[in-house]
Amino acid sequence: MKKKYSCIVCDLDETLLDATRNIPEINRKAIQKAHEKGVKFVPASGRNYASIDRFLKELDLYDLADEYVLSLNGAVITENKNHRVLKITAIPFEKVKELIQFGIDAHVCVQLYTDTLAYVYDFDDKERQVFIEEKINFIEVKNHDIEFLKDKTILKVIFESPDNAYLHSLEPQMEKISGSLNISYSSFRYMEINSKEIDKGIGTEELAKILHISTDEILAIGDNFNDEAMLIKAGLAACPKNAVEEIKNICDYVSPKNCSEGAVAEILEKFIL
């Protein structure tokens, strides 16, 4: 007998979204069919929830009660109705200061995320264009001032560089800073930094408690390193064909389709519909 899953927790970029960062129509229809069967669909993204709204609207999940989003890698859990915040976990300001200075010295783009806004140091032109296209609310910090952020609630820090190998090489140098932080990677150009007690796996466990279900009832779908903890915690872990090899190796199922071909729809047809 096929196991029943009552909730789908799904990454956005390179998983639900195609190469143009849009939802393929086949995915949208499959998610709506699953929702009609009473199966919840919960985006689990490194984005802040304000930049997920447009996808919720496409999926007919926007501003609905008893529907949820895990944003900023689980640092924020919100109910879709009125963006009601159920959990929020910030990075201490002293740690944020250390990260900003390290990133500036390492000559990477430094991005600091609140629940609705990003502060960005040392934008490169390509990354700035991504923010504009994605309609991400941001403030570009033209100088290297830090103290003005003292009263801001910073939930995630990103180091961005087109040189993925260089990003990975920075982690050992961050040992003194990163002891109380959680570091993961995504999209082959981001190092994502949250508080130690935050990752998508912990967010998935918290979501299960909110829904009064077991994590065994959750189907998780992701493609990259920041999805790993979520995939491990879920009852079933699946990924698109374009997932990194390390993620494929921990998944129960690898779709024969990539994110642009509707991998999420293929997974839902196989295990939900």
Q: What's the CATH topology label of the largest domain? A: Rossmann fold
Task: Give the CA-based shape.
Answer: globular
The total number of structural domains is 2
CATH superfamily of the largest domain: HAD superfamily/HAD-like
> What is the CATH architecture descriptor of the largest domain?
3-Layer(aba) Sandwich
Helix content: 25-40%
Summarize the biggest pleated sheet: 6 strands, mixed
Order of helices and strands: EHHEHEEEHEEHEEHHEEHEHEHEH
Structural class: alpha/beta
Strand content: 15-25%
Task: Specify Rg, calculated over alpha carbons.
Answer: 18 Å
Describe it.
The protein is globular and about 55 Å long. The chain has a six-stranded mixed beta sheet with strand order 8-7-6-9-11-10. A five-stranded parallel beta sheet has the order 2-1-12-13-14. The longest helix is centred in the middle third of the chain and has 13 residues, at 93-105. The protein has 273 residues and is an alpha/beta fold. 42% of the residues are buried. Helices cover 33% and strands 22% of the residues. It has two domains: 7-88 and 198-271, HAD superfamily/HAD-like (Rossmann fold), CATH 3.40.50.1000; 93-195, Hypothetical Protein, Haloacid Dehalogenase-like Hydrolase, Chain: A, domain 2.
